[in-house]
Amino acid sequence: MKENRLTDEQIDGWWDIARTGLWKGTIAGAPTRIEITPEDLYNMAADYDSQVQEAPVTVEHRREGPAHGWVTSLRVFGDRLQARLADLSESLRQWLRSGAYRSRSIEMYKPFEPTGKAYLGAVSFLGAAPPAVKGLSPLPSVMAEQARQGVILVGSGEMNLSDALPTTGEVEMDDKTIAERAIHALKEIFIQPAGHSDQKKSSDTESESAIAKLAELEEALKQEKQARLAAEARLAELEKVLQGREKEAELARFASALEEAAKEGRLTPAELKGYYRLGSRLDETGRTAILEELAQRQPLALFQELSAPGNNPGAMDEVARRKEEFSGFPEDPEHDAALELMAANPELTFEEAIKRVRLEKSAGG
């Protein structure tokens, strides 16, 4: 019929070649049921690369002799996969003009070895044979829908972002599939499809703008990471200083408690220094244990005897002898020097400080 005859402009438009659903097909010549999912459409459109494997245009699925043309680019439009064709033979163009070939069928790799996903193998025009995939438009799109609300012209093609997402009545998809189709729609907007050489200047400008914005975002992210790392380093430094101050304050409280115990007669002046030196090597739990032990002590009998009234000279001599014999903890110059180092360098542990003192001592002969 005359209304079904195509012009060259239509022939060079976008052809419906597949749609989602469960269809009758063949694998290695054997009849079977083949499912085409939304993911399959997206993968075929996103992964198509003529440099990897170019899909030929054939008639009646003939896989011999010369090809009648080649698929240059693919896109997802709603629940359809559409293709643009190039280098069509004059004989095929004539058949299409006359309406001899009105149906289409595809050959699909599932999976395609290089990608592990669905990939377009060929597009074949059918005449008398009915297509396996029903509901494809008999007429290609020549972008006459560009005035439709929501359609965005991009270079040599058109893209509607809403067509990348499912609508009422379409096959249900999970979040991952919806996201993948949305990403594919954005790629169609900002990236020129393979095989097109007639991209408009407006598309070039949009692509350059998108690349520039991406570069700005990457630089901002880099600066944000650097600032975060610097802040984390500063925080670690402040935490270290705070820990040192807290230890100093806790040691001061420990020393004050020791002095109070000495005033109460629970330890001798000689013991006072030894207990402080011992406490500086322990953690807070160890120092707390020392103070609890001292709190349970009764005032030392030595001081009670010294302060008791009416002591006879013989008893006083015995007390003096016992006082002379008891000198508390022995002096330890290495430990004293280590404690001084720790006071000057709060970050040092006692073990590190004592090692440094001994190294200095051995170096000095």
Written description of the protein model:
The structure is a single chain. The chain has 365 residues and is an alpha+beta fold. The protein has 2 domains: 2-195, no CATH class; 242-363, no CATH class. The protein has 11 helices and 10 strands. It has helices spanning 8-11, 38-47, 90-98, 175-190, 201-263, 269-281, 284-295, 301-307, 313-325, 333-344, 350-363; strands spanning 15-19, 21-27, 30-36, 56-59, 69-77, 80-86, 103-112, 117-126, 151-154, 157-160. The strands form 3 sheets. A 6-stranded mixed β-sheet has the order 1-6-5-4-8-7, with helices on both faces. Strands 2-3 form a two-stranded antiparallel ribbon. Strands 9-10 form a two-stranded antiparallel sheet. Helix 2 (38-47) packs parallel to helix 4 (175-190), helix 5 (201-263) runs parallel beside helix 7 (284-295) and helix 10 crosses helix 11. The relative contact order is 0.08.
Summarize the structure.
This protein has 365 residues and is of the alpha+beta class. It is built from 11 helices and 10 strands. The relative contact order is 0.08.
How would you write the strand order of the largest sheet? 1-6-5-4-8-7
Helix content: 40-55%
Largest sheet: 6 strands, mixed
Distance between the termini: 114 Å
Q: Structural class from helices and strands?
A: alpha+beta
Which helices and strands appear, and what pairs or packs with what?
Blueprint: H1 8-11, E1 15-19, E2 21-27, E3 30-36, H2 38-47, E4 56-59, E5 69-77, E6 80-86, H3 90-98, E7 103-112, E8 117-126, E9 151-154, E10 157-160, H4 175-190, H5 201-263, H6 269-281, H7 284-295, H8 301-307, H9 313-325, H10 333-344, H11 350-363
Parallel strand pairs: 4-8
Antiparallel strand pairs: 1-6, 2-3, 4-5, 5-6, 7-8, 9-10
Helix pairs in contact: 2-4, 5-6, 5-7, 10-11
